[in-house]
Amino acid sequence: MKTHYIFMCLVLINFSFAQNVTTNTSLTLNEMLESITTNLDCTSISNITSPNNAQLNAQGFSSYASFDIQNEPNFPFDKGIVLSTADVSQLTTMISSGDSNWPGDPDLDILHGQNTNNATILEFDFIPFRNQLSVDYVFVSKEYPNFVCNFADTFAFIVSGPGISNTNSYDHDANPNTSDISLDLGGINIATLPGTNIPVNPTNVHINTNCAVGSLGEFNFPQYYDVQSSGNNVLDFGGQTIPLTAQVDLIPGQTYHIKLVIADSLDTIFDSAVFIETNSFVIGTIPEELPYEPGLPVTLPECWSTSNSANFEVSNDCSPETQNHLKLYGGTYSITTAAVDVEGLSGVDISFDLLNGCDDVAEAGENLIIEYFDGNNWQFLDEIDPANLPASFNGQSNN
């Protein structure tokens, strides 16, 4: 009778796990990114690839997916994507998966000076419309709690592009007595502990106080280890970090590249994963309440004719070396232009006959407002009172 009782408990536990965690491995790479960013088209993401993953190396399973975790107080994210060094369909009953035929990643090899295996990579180009990229994530690993002194299963978010150096310094072992190492990763790794250049991995984030002198795990940051949730949540990993945010400053309108990569270090036995929260991947978009009409000249409402014109000169100090958007609005309508490169722009010609024939005829005070998007917010550029609009009007920005 006791044996039957134990068996039923195990069945119920496994059933509970299955109810709480769902992974979808059938998504395309585009669909994967759509699940973590609010508007894939407006963020101008392109060239999405995964040059290394389990399926490419004949492992018979997928190492990336979208995830859905419900009713689980010990995990901070409900939805998002997961990159792993193992089979992502086994997050609740993680069995070592991945053999030596599945290679690691050269960037991660040099980040901690350890050979890596079983790498999963997601990379793409993007054009930001804000001046900062940020992403919220949690790192989990089977290296916790017993192997944190020496096994640096690691991951990186490597961003490259204008204003970002390929070579950067990293405090790879968190040891205040050793010098930082200078590494060329083709960009900067932003998966570091807050306010530091210390990469996030089990040897740098743990609560083990018995690591030997000189080991990678000798110096650590226990405040970023999730003591409450590690080892007792719905995921079958030995430990996890608290939610962390990776971020970097960017130049709006320029083209950047990001490489998301995770790999096992030294062995293929104890696996790790990184979870990225849905809609936390903030590359920067024009606010949703402002419609976007690509292309110049501006596309005007059908009830507008083009008998009058207004020329607006945008000076470089509106938003130096960035791209902007111009917006026209008044009453209940609004129009947004395509990106405007202020470095190469002497003026913007806008032809219209304000609300001619529209139901909502403009009156004095219902002004046409011209604004530009500086990468963070909409800024005032100029204003036209339709009651005073001459046949030909020239307006110049004072910015």
β-strand percent reads 25-35%
The arrangement of helices and strands along the chain is HEHEEEHEEEEEEEEEEEEEEEEE
Mean pLDDT: 74
Question: Count of DSSP helices?
Answer: 3
The radius of gyration is 26 Å
General form: globular
- How many DSSP E strands? 21
The main pleated sheet reads as:
7 strands, antiparallel
Measured between the Cα atoms of the first and last residue, the distance is 82 Å
Residue windows where pLDDT falls under 50 for at least 5 positions: 1-19, 285-325, 329-338, 350-365, 390-399
Assembly level: single chain
Tally of distinct domains: 2
| Helix content bin | under 10%
- Helix-strand category: mainly beta
Write structural notes for this entry.
It is built from 3 helices and 21 strands. It folds into 2 domains: 2-277, no CATH class; 305-396, Immunoglobulin-like (Sandwich). Residues 1-19, 285-325, 329-338, 350-365 and 390-399 have low confidence and may be disordered. The radius of gyration is 26 Å and the shape is globular. The longest helix has 19 residues, at 2-20. Strands 1, 3, 4, 6, 11, 12 and 14 form a 7-stranded antiparallel sheet that branches. With 399 residues, it is mostly beta strands.
